[in-house]
Amino acid sequence: MFKKRKEKILITGGSGFIATHLIKYLQTFDKYEITVLDIVPPKTENVKFIQASISDLSKIEPILNDIDYVFNFAAMIGVDNCANNPDAVMQVNYVDTKNLFDLCVKKCIKKIIFTSSSEVYGNSEDIPYKENAILQPISTYAKCKMMIEGYLMGISKTTKIKVGIVRFFNVYGLGQKDDFVSSIFVKAALTNEPLVIFGDGQQSRCFTYVDDAVKGVYSLFKYNKSPYEIVNIGSKFESTIENLAKIVLSSIPESKSKIVFKNYGIDNVRESYLEIKRRIPFTDKANRLLGFEAVTSIEDGVKNIAFSYVKEINTHDYFEDGRILSSN
Ligand SMILES: NC(=O)c1ccc[n+]([C@@H]2O[C@H](COP(=O)([O-])OP(=O)(O)OC[C@H]3O[C@@H](n4cnc5c(N)ncnc54)[C@H](O)[C@@H]3O)[C@@H](O)[C@H]2O)c1
């Protein structure tokens, strides 16, 4: 009996938060051979690892000879990090990313998956955000994502390469960097530090649990009926940042933390123009095309993160029935 050849996927940024969860999900199918390309080592086992930047085309070119699909997760991220380093963002998230995709064209990759962002909608008031809306990106980060989306449309029209683009809406979960709001709040609550909210806390998001997000990515990868698709990957449940803080505190009833509000533009708090006020995805396309729906409630997602931090920092006894028992 011949063993079926595994399909070969290169994941740039494969050591990062979302890609780590995606790799674990892909491995459950036992039919993919995964190569991670990242500047830092992966957190997953049973993958090939190339330590390199996406700008290092001489290292990437020979690898692509034996790759079927490229998933690009490598990027500079974080609203404040990107606002402080606009030139680096332009270099990595636009120039290097575009060069990588040119190489994919040269190597006749079958399909590219690109991770875009809900930031491309900016502060549009045309809510919920539909995939075919006129984009209004504000930050350099968002402009780079939009430009790459357009560049990939050109590639899909002029080559046989298929393109799937996910626009993620506030993905959160275990293993996320510590400078994202849900992780910040949970860590603060577990250590009795204040939960600091920028502005009045009425800015809202549709927080999307990472286990849901990776299923969305996978379903777009498997969708083959058209050469180019952009799909919002987001939860339809809206929460203000103040509500998120309250959910965190009610998930960790032992916490002595208080909610504190800080004005924009002072004390290292970002300028108000960088804040998106409401960010709500139109979710029908993902549902209709891919059968995808984000199902994890924010309460369950927060509990999962809290549980993992409790183990990590070991300051509380563990959950029972989803609750933290007591401080050590
Ligand atoms: N987390 C979210 O809510 C969210 C929302 C919208 C879009 N996205 C996009 O999803 C992707 C993954 O995001 P994440 O939250 O997992 O971020 P992350 O920072 O955890 O992962 C990004 C990975 O890319 C790597 N990387 C950075 N620059 C690189 C380079 N030049 N060459 C090779 N590797 C490089 C980093 O080392 C990191 O491992 C990014 O493209 C991001 O823009 C994420």
Q: Please, could you describe this protein's structure?
A:
The protein is α/β, with parallel strands linked by helices and 328 residues long. It has two domains: 195 residues, NAD(P)-binding Rossmann-like Domain (Rossmann fold); 96 residues, UDP-galactose 4-epimerase, domain 1, CATH 3.90.25. 37% of the residues lie in helices and 19% in strands. The chain has ten helices and 15 strands. It has a seven-stranded parallel sheet with strand order 3-2-1-4-5-6-11, with helices on both faces. It has a two-stranded parallel sheet with strand order 7-10. Strand 5, helix 5 and strand 6 form a beta-alpha-beta unit. Helix 1 packs across helix 7, helix 6 packs across helix 10 and helix 8 crosses helix 10. The termini are far apart. The site of nicotinamide-adenine-dinucleotide has 26 residues, from helix 1, helix 4 and strand 5.
